[in-house]
Amino acid sequence: MLARHQDPIIAIATAPGRGAVGIVRVSGRALQPLIQALTGRTLVPRHATYGPFLGVDGVPIDQGLALYFPAPHSYTGEDVLELQAHGGPVVLQLLLARCLQAAAADGSLPALRLAEPGEFTERAFLNDKLDLAQAEAVADLIDASTEAAARSAARSLSGAFSERITALRDRLIELRMLVEATLDFPEEEIDFLEKADARGRLDRLAGQLAAVLDTAQQGALLREGLKVVIAGQPNAGKSSLLNALAGAELAIVTPIPGTTRDKVSETLQIEGVPVHIIDTAGLRSDEEASDEVERIGIARSWGAIAEADAVLLLHDLTRCDDPVYAEADRAIEARLPDRQRLVHVYNKADAAPADRAASALAALPEGSRALALSARTHDGLQTLRETLLALAGWHASPEGVFIARTRHLKALRQAQDHLGQARGWAAQADSALDLLAEELRLAHDALGEITGAYTPDDLLGDIFTRFCIGK
User: Fold this and answer.
1) Which of 175, 306, 369, 439 could join 422 in a cystine, given CB atoms 3.0 to 4.6 angstroms apart?
2) 208 and 260 both lie in a single domain
3) Per UniProt, where does (6S)-5-formyl-5,6,7,8-tetrahydrofolate bind (predicted)?
């Protein structure tokens, strides 16, 4: 793996397509001969130089800016050359091919090769320009779907998340040193640990870890968002609710049952949290479905429900007193895979008798999440938004939250579990000091996985191959 990262690499660093500016980026060792071949001059480090980019015959391919960042003061920690040309795909491909040809023709340069996805950022990590959490934040900043997610990713990229993890690891190191020293001098172990307040330190560390985990969970929600499925019988108002939440006419709304035949999706944000809303085909039995297309749509609806973080089961208040309709609603609810993700939404409150919503809500089991609204007048929409955030566990302001990933949460929970075991062993004093030391080591290693202090190569490969090429 390390040998692979000794080769200079090249990629087009801007998105495919036409644009005002396109960038070709090179990273490696001793790039001066390549710079001379492409620009015909020596570049001043970190200064933009305007001029021609020369072809193999000396004829300019394009005019643009060339920037040279000598190691170690560059993004990757290696020599980096950036050619900023006009953003046509043909021009950029010509520059790419010219760089490869120039490197191959100069025997003093190692063979230049095309960069793999995320390889520039991977080199930044391997050269200690970024830790692993910061490197992941680069991709998260690019992929951010809301302003709050982008700001949180920027905080992680600046090192906010890593600083919290490093502080926890430093305190763990101090505690491990105390315990290891006690193991070396068993005749003094109880007094030594008590004087050092080892148990108190462990308790405070567990509390600090819990606070970091809570913030990370909020950051993961900003990154991943909440997948919400609107489900219910035909003509309950599912498409109207989607349109109301989105503030646009995304789905067709008619009085004809079964208008929605397939999933209709939209991503919106509530207090900065991305919410992926999916409107589904009306649910009814295969016998009631009008044709094969509707049956396929219903099957896809159940598939979306199974994958959802939250399910809005829509009830039509104008039909709730119909025994046949009410029985069909109960049959749908009985098939739902997880009631913990369920929110009962009683729609058309503007068209139903005033007391019907209150009666319907009162009839639900205690602890049910439920509300009444009108998708037509938008009454109750804000309550629905607040209910969704509560269901997702969102309770923080986006300010101060750092972006986090599922693997970060897993590592933090593992560290939390090991600290819990350690607290149990610490309560047994001298009879379990070796077990206490081992649990502290495991917690330390789990935290190290977040920043890359302890990271297997296969995990690095999985992380960086998800980046775009040229980053």
Assistant:
1) 439
2) no
3) 25, 82, 129, 471
> What is the rounded CA–CA span in Å between residue 465 and residue 119?
8
Q: Is 129 annotated as a binding residue?
A: yes
Domain-embedded: residue 469: no
The verdict on whether residue 322 carries a ligand-binding annotation is no
- Tally of domains in the chain: 3
Residues 210 and 253 in one domain: no
User: Residue holding tokens 């789905």?
Assistant: 251
Q: Last residue of some domain: 109, 128, 147?
A: 128
Is 397 one of the annotated binding-site residues? Answer: no
Based on the fold, state whether residues 14 and 97 are members of the same structural domain: yes
Known binding residue 257? Answer is yes
151 is in an annotated binding site: no
Query: Could you tell me the CATH number of the domain that includes residue 430?
Result: 1.20.120.430
CA atoms within 13 A on the CB side of 277: 24
Q: Taking phi first (over 0 means left), then psi (-120 to 50 degrees means alpha), and beta for anything else, what does residue 467 get?
A: beta
Residue entry with tokens 């170690």: 72
Answer yes or no: is 471 a known binding residue.
Answer: yes
Claim to verify: residue 383 and residue 248 sit in the same structural domain = yes
CA distance 161 to 217: 12
Instruction: Please indicate, yes or no, whether residues 155 and 304 belong to a single structural domain of this protein.
Output: no
14 is in an annotated binding site: no
For residue 287, tell me if it sits in a domain: yes
Alpha-carbon dihedral angle through residues 132, 135, 137, 139, given to the nearest 10 degrees = -130
Identify the pLDDT of residue 91: 95
Is 256 annotated in a binding site? The answer is yes
**φ and ψ at residue 372, rounded to 5 degrees:** -115, 145
- Give pLDDT, residue 259: 47
What angle, 0 to 180 degrees and rounded to 10, lies between the N-to-C axes of helices 198-224 and 147-158?
A: 140
* Sole residue written with tokens 């495919």: 16
Domain boundary among 99, 128, 157: 128
Closest CA to 470 of 7, 22, 25, 16: 25
Residues with Cβ within 8 Å of 288's Cβ and at least 6 positions away in sequence, in order, are none
370 assigned to a ligand binding site: no
CATH number at residue 261: 3.40.50.300
* Residues of the domain holding 436: 137-221+405-451
Q: 82: annotated binding-site residue?
A: yes
- Is 74 one of the annotated binding-site residues? no
Is position 236 annotated in a ligand binding site?
A: yes
Same-domain status, 156 and 269? no
Ligand-binding annotation for 374, yes or no, is yes
Which positions of the chain have pLDDT values less than 70? 1-5, 109-110, 184-193, 195, 248-263, 285-291, 429-431, 454-458
CB 38 within 8 A of CB 88: no
Give the predicted TM-score (pTM) of the model.
0.82
Pair 263, 323 in one domain: yes
Does 259 carry a binding-site annotation? yes
